[in-house]
Batch of 2 targets.
Target 1
Amino acid sequence: MKRRELLAGLGASAAVLAACGQEQPAAGTASSASPGETFNWKMVTTWPPNFPGTGTSATLLAETITRASGGRIRVQVYAAGELVPPFEVFNAVSAGAAEIGHGVSYYWKAQVEAAQFFGAIPFGMTPPESSAWLHFGGGLELWRELYEPFGVMVFTGGNTGTQMGGWFNREINSPEDLKGLKMRIPGLGGEVLQRAGGTPVMLPGGEIYTAMQTGSVDATEWVGPYNDVGFGLHEVAQYYYYPGWHEPGAILEVSINQEAWDALPEDLQDVVRSACGYVESRMGPEYSARNAQFLQQLRDEGKIEIRRFPDSVIDELRARSREVIDELVARDEKAARIYASYAAFQQQVNEWLDIGERAVVAARG
Ligand code: CA
């Protein structure tokens, strides 16, 4: 992207954010760094290098911060495994080994179990709904409070769009077929599968294709047609199931080491804040456009079968999801507060959706 377009886009996005009252700068939190001081930031990510949508968003964020700051913050991107393993991103940012991270919060559920609510919740909110909760329903404040003890500041990084149920080399005709199913599926969705009798496996994106090809897993979820075709998953599976019950949308997170954040002068904090907003605003439209395009490609090629999970399977997974969430909330006070906020917002927005978006989609046929 040319510098002029980039800055025009950034300016427009910052103006929109300001007009919406979203992510307004907080007064008086920045350091009194000397003018002309430069900052060299390492960005660690959970993605393969420049992986379409997620990895490219991380790169765009790094470039935007570097250019819009006039080079006063120079951000160097490291793909998964280049500096730290993918699931170590949060720890690296918390410890200050990297100043900034780009990933999804459920990858660090071992460190912060309640963080999963900021990644994806089975049968939870769609990308626009969760974005509404984060920016206008108190979600982002709860997220920052959760990460504060770890010395991590967080921004929203976008969303991968509504996901697919995944790729299977077995037919799923009834809840019985979930029993013994070995599937790559992270986060709360994995716990739900386990409760339904399956064996969830947590693998970073870069290892999924080989796991499917060698049969070390029977099934995998990843994202949606855009990213899944990017990995070639259609070459190693027969059935592509929907809906993405486990991950109605994955919220991406931008984590920043608190000391690195506090060291920035106020104008550079504004640059980072606006850059996050700019990148986030592009991601939803990108996924909507590309998922539609790659779904069409899969249909045209006709080599795989696209199927809906039977109602009996969805009912089973919904019931098991309820149990998993209830138990998490019962054992973790922070999780309870976050989920109370999330669930109340979901119910309210759902009522609007009924007579808003869903009604329009139904009406247009
Ligand atoms: Ca996924």
Target 2
Amino acid sequence: MTEPIKWVEKDRSAKNVFWPTEEMKRHAWVADEAIYEQAAADPEGFWAKQAEEISWIKRWGKTYQFEPHNYKWFVGGKLNISFNSLDRHIEAGKGDKIALIWEPEPTETEVIKLTYTELHREVCKFANVLKGLGVKKGDRVGIYLPMIPEAVVAMQACARIGAPHSVVFSAFSPESLRDRLIDAGAKILITADGYFRRTKKIDLKRNADAGVEGTDVEKVIVVNRLGDGAQMTADRDLWYHELMADASDHCLPEEMDSEDLLFILYTSGTTGKPKGVVHTTGGYAVQAAITTKWNFNLHDDDVFWCTADVGWITGHTYVNYGPLMNGSTSVIYEGSPDAPDYGRMWAIIAKHKVTALYTAPTAIRMCVKWGDQWPAKHNLSSLRILGTVGEPINLDAWLWYFEKIGGGRCPIIDTWWQTETGANMINSLPGIGPFMPTIAGRPFPGINAQILEVGGKMQLPPGEGGYLAIGGPLPPALLRGVYRDPERFKDQYFSEYGPEYYFTGDGARKDEPGNVRITGRVDDVMNVAGHRLATAEVESALAQNDKVSEVAVVSRPHDLKGEVPVAFVLLKVGADHSDEIRKELIKTVDSVIGPTARPDEIVFVDNVPKTRSGKIMRRLLKSLVRNEPLGDTSTLVNPECVDELKGLTSYKG
Ligand code: WTA
């Protein structure tokens, strides 16, 4: 029996502080707090040491090189991340270890387990398929796949031949897919006929077909997941399994420069247009590998399950590259946590003896709602570590996760990071702690996260709220650019505090020992059920409906989803404020972005509050839906509309 985690204080109204058990400390890769000071004294030396943990074809020269807006890590180093994920372990005699466990949604479908040798073979074959279609180093490849093993194979194959992948979340609409394919200039798309979601078959191919229209995509490779015979377009569509049948399983990994492009991943910024976050090879590989190892304390007998979809950064780093670079076993699950019943997650943990679970607060809150009886039915004693990511976790969800899932034994590693940072930045380490609900923890060793004042550059003392920024040396896995938009890169991340500080867009404060509490986004970006979304994106989607004259979208806190969009819509003359039109608007959002972006509420208005310069005053709308004081409304050109809006919302003043 493991001893229970040390419980310092259990008072729901005060602070809960938990520390690692002696056993956890013994088992942990790092258990000595001195690591923070050592890394802070010589961050470049710290990262160089971590870089030794992966394989390089050629060692780097300078560890870190900084020029404004142009920073490099492991300069001149050569490596391949697919070699590091696969070949390296086979060479070390771990070829028979399970690399990937795929749990399909239908419980009657067989689980697929791929050893490192098997996964390597699939990746090499698919890399040759891509080469055979003319894909060369530097060519961008679109991936629009559900959670099936081929998603990992495809990403790894791209990385093997140096073709940057651009993965698009499979629940995104054709239009979202099209925009991303065009921006990335992809000529190849890898997709599937479909997948299972809540026991239904989802026709992904139809969306892919619509999405490639008007793009430069010449070939579409289709994985036969459902086996129902998808509609194939002659001269364009090719079956994955047919291409694989003839492919050679020998493919040397491409020699990649440390700063060569590894992948592009689109995420929401503050405008209506998502930006292509650019990640390069060396720094990303090092930070992805070490954060996975230390945060989840991965050893040879661990089974790691990160529930994120491959369409998000968490899926890139902690389903694919991080666990595989560590030679670990990574679990992927195709479907929904409520299929066939509310206990599916816990059944998967018991079945595969998962030791580390990494999921999102929104999923935990949903499980809390479904009730304790579901996890209680399953044996969760294999779990050693729990992780969360994507949004602040509230106290009740934290305690439930800790008690009901972790059985009071497992530390909760609350990891703060972003698509842009590529890998974890702020979290408590399992052998050091402390683990405190709602507090992410200390910046990872070697990460210089600061709370800066708003409007100046002063570092704020403990307790004071400001903006979260990351100072030099800028982290190894930090984005290197916005694809084909250098101005947006500078503007978005380096205009608030200048080129020396990466501006995160989050508010935060620190306590005395330096633990960071994230207070949420300070810009117009929302976090809806763990999905990042700009209010401007939802606005521009709604504006595509021809009945809409004007629209403003703001976020509102939500018990389960964290945040949800609320839309204020001014319809054109002749359109009535009906539920029919509400439904139609929801459909518009579904088709432009996807169902994740659906407004929680649509408020029809006759007027939107505007400033004298004609801008919609979203701040006021946000306060209205949150029942917060409205603040200064004197700059409004139409102050009379505020009273009308009060009546239309739940605002109580
Ligand atoms: C939020 C997800 C509080 C934050 C990896 C950030 C968090 C945005 C946490 C990035 C956390 C992420 N606590 N907030 N542990 N982790 N966030 O790009 O607002 O999808 O800026 O990356 O999620 O979302 P993204």
